[in-house]
Amino acid sequence: MNLMESVDFGIGWPVEGEENELFVSTLKSECEVRKLKFIFIHERLIDPLSAKIKKGEFKLKFYLDMASETFDPKDDFIKFAYILKDSGTRIVADPDDVKAAADKSVTHFDLARAQVPVPFTVLIRNWEPTRRLTDEEKEGLGLPFVIKPALGYAQEGVKIIDQKSTLKEIAEARKFSQGDNFLLQEYIECKEFNGDPAWFRVFHLFGEIIPCWWHPSTHVYRHVTLKEIHEFSLLPLVRVTTEIARITRIDWFSCEIAVSKKNGQFVTVDYMNDQCAINPQSKYKDGVPDDLIVHMAERLVDKAWQYIRGKFTLSHRAIWLPKIQVKDENV
Q: Which of 53, 218, 236, 305 is most solvent-facing, going by the fewest CB within 10 Å?
């Protein structure tokens, strides 16, 4: 009789040999501190691990999926995620929850019903690619407006349509993902606060909110400070992100929220991105600040540790802000 091999924390990663990346190395070191057994799962490990799971020879308790292509049924990592789920593994994020939440043509209406501010949107179903807009829809969209595929991510397939755009360009944008629904959305021009675009990328991690300034052109991050939360009345970032988490049921994601120049409203411009970008700012200009990456890795392992001990809870919300770097940041 073969003995069951049990591993506490695993991460699925698309590139073999990147175990020393800041995020992965922090996960590993945090597991060591808590005496949790860690495994780095790249593509070549999927088949042997899957076979062992099916034979009852391998058990993974907590799995962080940073590799699967949710809507590709041939993707090895998504098939592996379902094998793990069926064997009882706690997965971040659950593939079925991701499948529902990542479809913008569904999530848009879920958010709107929950009174989360979203751009004026016209949904073009995949069976009506040549549908013409009504006068009311044209007025609501205005110019410029944005075309994006419902299942797109990382700005793939997104195109801004302005007065110079031809019908051919619009048609080509719709053809980016054949068979997908498309969203036509009002273009949100954001306000500026002290010269910075009021555009934010906000991370949600097991009830904790981490707000960052995020420049829509350069994609440079900067952690929002306590003083800025007060000075610019940024608490709606917390409410909106928390509502997205409640609706989507995703434990770890990022969203984009902009303060509209037109009416000062906090508008959700990108609803939910799982498998968060975690390239470190120390190596990439448009990367996430290193201390945020370390903190998110620490919190993920801590939540895994709580789960394994049977003490997993999400009863509190919190905002994680940077340490005060100046003598006085009174609010």
A: 218
Cα dihedral value 175, 178, 181, 183, nearest 10: -20
CATH of 192-319, one of 3.40.50, 3.30.470, 1.20.58, 3.40.1000: 3.30.470
Please indicate, yes or no, whether the overall pTM of this predicted structure exceeds 0.85. Answer: yes
Query: Which residues are paired to 192 by β-bridges?
Result: 197
Fold of 120-186: Dna Ligase; domain 1 (3.30.1490)
| Tokens read off for 38 | 């860690």
Burial class (CB in 10 A: 0-12, 13-18, 19+), 292: buried
Q: Which CATH superfamily is domain 5-92 in?
A: Response regulator (3.40.50.2300)
Quick one: the chain helix, strand, coil %, rounded to 5?
Answer: 30, 25, 45
Tens place of pLDDT per residue across the chain (331 aa): 567 899 999 999 998 888 789 999 999 999 999 999 999 999 999 999 999 999 999 999 999 999 999 888 899 999 999 999 999 999 999 999 999 998 898 999 999 999 999 999 999 888 876 778 889 998 999 889 888 888 866 566 678 877 665 555 655 655 555 567 888 999 999 999 999 999 999 999 999 999 999 999 999 999 999 999 999 999 999 999 999 999 999 999 999 999 999 999 999 999 999 999 899 999 999 999 999 999 999 999 999 999 999 887 665 778 999 876 655 555 5
Written as one string, the DSSP assignment of 270-284 is: EEEESS----BTTT-
- Residue appearing with tokens 């110019």: 143
> What is the phi-psi region of residue 257: left when phi exceeds 0, alpha when psi lies from -120 to 50, beta otherwise?
beta
Q: Where are the domains of the chain?
A: 5-92, 120-186, 192-319
In order of 202, 213, 244, 251, 270, the CA distances from 254 in angstroms are 5, 12, 10, 10, 9
